[in-house]
């Protein structure tokens, strides 16, 4: 039996394997801390300005992790129930949701208030975020609420997602894939460039 050691790996192969191992380790640590994959999303539009801008990288977590005070049973704090809690300079959580039938990337907007199936939510809506001239639930899209869920709004948008057509109804709790926690300016442009969305 030959006891002579085999040839060493070339240095570039060893460096490549070490880099891959480091990336995998960081990925596993981020997944362990956040509970979601991917643990970061890139902001693709100006809908959350000035608190998030296109090209920002946002660290996200599972909705039930790090739930703030007044969080509902799904871990989300809405703007109307925030009791002094705020994320990104305004009351309530910023959620990442992916509604069935959505052909684009998941949406990252603020959860304004929660509605129940059949609820007339026009009376709770901010008149500044519904179309001009709408005076009742009957004139408002998705009112009464076709199911339980969140009424959402981009901080820089004029109308609720459920009125403007961004969401096909109140955002069901199971559509919420994550909550935004930390914003890193400009770093998301790398991801947007790779995806052809910059």
TrEMBL record:
Subcellular location: Membrane
GO CC annotation: membrane
Ranges that cross the membrane: 20-43
GO terms, molecular function: serine-type endopeptidase activity
GO biological process, one term: signal peptide processing
Record keyword Transmembrane present: yes
The protein's name: Signal peptidase, endoplasmic reticulum-type
Protein source organism: Halopelagius inordinatus
């Amino acid at each position: 039996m030959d006891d002579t050691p085999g040839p060493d790996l070339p240095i570039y192969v060893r460096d490549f394997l070490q880099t891959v191992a480091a990336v995998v380790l960081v990925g596993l640590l981020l997944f362990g801390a956040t509970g979601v994959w991917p643990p970061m999303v890139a902001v693709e539009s100006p809908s959350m300005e000035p608190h998030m801008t296109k090209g920002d990288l946002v660290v996200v977590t599972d909705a039930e992790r790090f739930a703030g005070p007044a969080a509902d049973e799904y871990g989300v704090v809405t703007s109307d129930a925030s009791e002094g809690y705020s994320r990104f300079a305004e009351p309530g959580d910023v959620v990442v949701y992916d509604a069935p039938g959505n052909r684009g990337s998941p949406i990252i907007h603020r959860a304004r208030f929660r509605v129940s199936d059949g609820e007339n939510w026009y009376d709770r809506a901010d008149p500044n975020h519904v179309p001009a001239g709408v005076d009742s639930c009957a004139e408002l899209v998705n009112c009464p609420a076709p199911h339980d869920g969140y009424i959402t709004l981009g901080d820089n948008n004029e109308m609720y997602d459920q009125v403007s057509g961004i969401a096909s109804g109140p955002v069901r709790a199971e559509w919420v894939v994550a909550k935004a926690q930390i914003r890193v300016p400009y770093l998301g442009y790398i991801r947007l460039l790779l995806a052809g969305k910059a």
